[in-house]
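Handout, section B. The chain below has 325 residues.
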Amino acid sequence: MSQNAAEHPLRVGIVGVDNGHAHAFAHILNGWDRNSPQPFRFSKEGGDDSAAFLWTDGIWLHEKYAPTALNRKHVQVTRIFGEEREQAMAIAAACGIAHVAETPDDACEDVDLVLVLSDAGNDHARHAAPAFARGLPVFIDKPMSTSLEQARELFASARAGCSPVFSASALKFSPRFNAAQRELTALVGELRAVHVQCPVDMQSYAIHGLEIINIFLGHDVESLMSMRSPGHDVALLRFNDGRSAVLEHIDIPGHLRYNVILHGTMGVHRLSYDGIATVFIALLGKIVAFARSRTPPVQEAETLALLGLFERIRAPEFIATPRDV
């Protein structure tokens, strides 16, 4: 980071604009021109309002509720690259981003922090490489990669460039989930099991469900089995201490929330996640602190453990075929 970090806003480069997170992150950090078109994340067809929320809806609340550390006087996106150049240009216009980069390397020039937000995990290594070469702090969106081996290589590349790096779901920093974790004994007594309902699909979103399970039970998993049938996926996890978790996706149009049930010796507690604006603001607060301290808030071992579980949930050898009884 620049020696003059205290004298100018933390300069952020974004690489990858194809999954909607670039729109949201740039909006939170830079603001969004209300006269600019608002991007849809999901189609409205067949669902209620929650099935087609605008990334900018709710995030405008940041202007009232976001912490000072995320104020644009202190941190600002100054460069953005996307292989979908029209998207990158639209975000830049809406958020006042000065430079639309031609390449990932260009997006890493004259910045203090790089956010790799491309949708495909296979793209993350080449998108992060220019930042690693400069020794810049890097946040890589979930999933960090499409395989455990790729993730290990990413961490090795970061170490070679003395570049601090971390990857995490925004849900890891959910104020609501973390408050429940701190109050577990009062809520349910001794926690014995967790059920997480995962939206959209397990192939992409199970990594976020695993992050929620990690908040409450950790990631010391002894065994895992998945079951898959049309419109319904279930993963069963058993932990070394005997506790268990169920991660479940039911294909219900319009359902985009993570719902959680905590089962304990004194009862059951149900909760849903805070909402997109709240968890993104919480994540970006962690990212900004990480950029200034160069100390990752999530350790490599934890990231690899969760990615390994994600890989196994999707692997054919871990999928059991339901049988008639």
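Note. The mean pLDDT is 88. Compare this with the example in section A.
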